[in-house]
Write a structure and sequence with these properties.
Elements: E1 3-7, H1 12-17, H2 24-33, E2 38-41, H3 52-65, E3 68-74, H4 78-91, E4 95-99, H5 109-125, E5 129-133, H6 140-150, E6 155-160, H7 171-178, E7 182-187, E8 189-194, E9 201-206, H8 215-225, E10 230-233, H9 243-266
Parallel strand pairs: 1-2, 1-10, 2-3, 3-4, 4-5, 5-6, 6-7, 7-10
Antiparallel strand pairs: 8-9
Length: 267
């Protein structure tokens, strides 16, 4: 069974601008209000930068609301991965999603494989599954080779519905290769429209179901494969005329998208 969840990147603008004040407690409040039992904190709310008391408050409130926490990070090095496995223990998370690259750090696929393989004993001991996200650079075939090379149920893919456009690949092709090893899914929708001068396209975020991505087919493939635990809502809300307009649109998109998300995971 797939569980719908809320990701911190569903409110990327609100978190970045802190207008209105929006943080991990706000995510928990929104999730609880809408009957969601999973919240994933991405690298826009990095746990390793939070003071201990703030993480403790996060855990207490999540338990009070009956919400399971998932953790996200960026920059897959052995040291950073070890830090986040410890943080997963601290907050009770069993899913750790990682974006591999960070600010000029772009390891080779062989290095990614080695880092993940070396971490398997610690992941197993902590009861944590590592989900490597398809995030622009690596093709689906390369990511599949990495996961197959690691060869452990403790390591899989976080399949993002839109990121692989950056690697020149569409969702249908990516899902066909990665569904079997997907342990977590990020869903967002986009519209892809040709520019008026006909010399290119614009890729722009839309609420779920209002774009062009074959989300239902991708979710169905992932469900059939049987390894995925949660489907997490994210958003690429286009900026508006002002910060206030942008944040308002983002909030409206989240409301619309949650209804579509439930239909996706229940169909």
């Amino acid at each position: 069974m797939l569980l719908p969840g809320l990701g911190s990147f569903a409110f990327g603008w609100a978190i970045a601008h802190r207008r209105p004040p929006f943080d991990e407690q706000s995510l928990l409040e929104f999730a609880s209000l809408h009957g969601l039992s999973v919240v994933q904190l991405g690298d826009n709310l990095p746990l390793h930068e939070m003071p201990t008391h703030r993480r403790e408050s996060l855990v207490l409130e999540a338990r009070r609301q009956g919400i399971q926490l998932e953790v996200g990070a960026r920059g897959l090095t052995e040291t950073h991965l070890a830090t986040y496995v410890d943080l997963c223990r601290e907050v009770g998370a069993t899913l750790l999603r990682f974006v591999i690259d960070l600010d000029g750090y772009a390891p080779a696929a062989s290095d990614v494989m080695a880092i993940a393989r070396n971490a398997v004993p610690e992941l197993r001991a902590a009861n944590v599954v590592l989900a490597l996200e398809n995030h622009d650079r690596f093709t689906a075939a390369t990511l599949r080779a990495v996961i197959d090379g690691v060869g452990s149920q403790q390591v899989g893919i976080c399949l993002d519905s839109a990121n692989s456009l950056g690697a020149g690949e569409g969702l249908a092709a990516v899902a066909a290769l990665l569904a079997e090893v997907t342990v977590n899914m990020h869903v967002k929708d986009v519209a892809i429209t040709r520019l008026p001068h006909q010399m290119g396209f614009v890729v722009e975020g839309r609420p779920l179901g209002c774009g062009t991505l074959p989300l239902a087919d991708a979710v169905a493939r992932v469900r059939a494969a049987g390894r995925c635990r949660t489907v997490i809502l994210e958003s690429w809300t286009p900026p508006g005329a002002s910060v206030e307009d942008t944040i308002s649109s983002e909030a409206a998109s989240a409301e619309i998208s949650l209804s579509a998300l439930r239909k996706l995971v229940e169909s």
